[in-house]
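pasting for the record
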Amino acid sequence: MSTVWSLGAGLVLLLLWLRHRGLEAVLVHHRWVFVCLFLLPLSILFDVYYQLRAWAVWRLHSAPRQHGQRVRHIQAQVREWKNEGSKRYMCTGRPGWLTVSLRVGKYKKTHKNIMINLMDVLEVDSERQVVRVEPLVTMGQLTAHLNPMGWTIPVVPELDDLTVGGLIMGTGIESSSHIHGLFQHTCVAYELVLADGSLVRCSPTENSDLFYAVPWSCGTLGFLVAAEIKMIPAKKYIKLHYEPVRGLQKICERFAEESKKKENSFVEGLVYSLDEAVIMTGVLTDEAEPKKINRIGNYYKPWFFKHVEKYLKADRTGIEYIPSRHYYHRHTRSIFWELQDIIPFGNNPIFRYLFGWMAPPKISLLKLTQGEAIRKLYEQHHVVQDMLVPMKSLEKSIQTFHAGLNVYPLWLCPFILPNNPGMVHPKGDETELYVDIGAYGEPKTKHFEARASMREMEKFVRSVHGFQMLYADCYMTREEFWDMFDGSLYHKLREQMNCKDAFPEVYDKICKAARH
């Protein structure tokens, strides 16, 4: 009984404090209170619901049987839109707050919402080494489904909640991308419902123009209803080598060297200052030295980027064996390093042991509850950007990021970019090695101003023939956007498939200059 009274008294004191400070002030200046008390428990409930649902679908084998019916329902909604006179653009009916992107999609309120309830793994074809999935299948869900069968996919982008549809219509990358390319390059076929309500399948040999135009189109060519993705055999561990490197030139040289080695299954860099970094290389293996196994994904373990930093501070190399699924989602618990700005004490051992099992809060719930004050605060004083630049421009790029943003750590992830048709390809005729530079956090540079500073970054990226990931805030004009991206195939297909009355142009959907 005394416990109940204690909880009741604590709740009363909390409510009095909220009333005194004001809810908005608490959400802005003490957001961790709201996150710890409400969002972490809610996130657990979300996870439990979706895990139980996935288990039930798997046990009942209902996904393949219901897929056709669900697709026909989507087709019926599109035909209904046509019968109503095609008066407004269409978009998916998924609420904007459920997406991992921090951008708030206001178009959902004015466009015709097409409900797409497609979130299941449909088929695992071991002979073809292909898995067929629906677009709302998440990376966490997919690896949990495939790994017990002895399979994985070649590129497993970080964060459990990233969906297959988002990674295809936008893009996705991981530390294996120096071998396999971006997420789109591991896909062998897409199935889409088009603006006329028809269902089409596209691949490199079937409707190939559409196949190459879909990635980066952000849902402006049709509704994705299924995708086929390559599978590779999974192994138990990643043998990970940590190498601290000092001096910017040496950092870039070592990173490029390791990225070109095909014997490295994984290559990743964390840059902690302008001249300090840790470069990690990994290989898949079934054997491990027991004393060197590190189950980094366990809730009580230090956040991965903090763990890596220990090698830099100690100025020593090291080797660990990390269970494969722990490695694939190594940055999930701390949302890379974003969680330290939300829960400043989140990596404290006491917090990890007592409450780490609830972390991280769902990004979707953070978006849903952030409010206008926090949204504006983040927009002006926070950066979440991924810029893809040629490896040969890495040193100059890091210097530009330092001068314009001064955000650390920076995430370095190499990837091979083939010369395929579509919006994103190298400037020349040959495959080229690129690197994703991820900047997440509060800029420390003086006189940072979101719009002006990011426009300078975008200008630099265009000058080296790089690309900006489209999940983030984009400040380019229409002309600048299509200077960065190759729109020739995209515009040709929008004309051929009568998309102009059905879907907004990708620029109008994602760029701030078009949305404001």
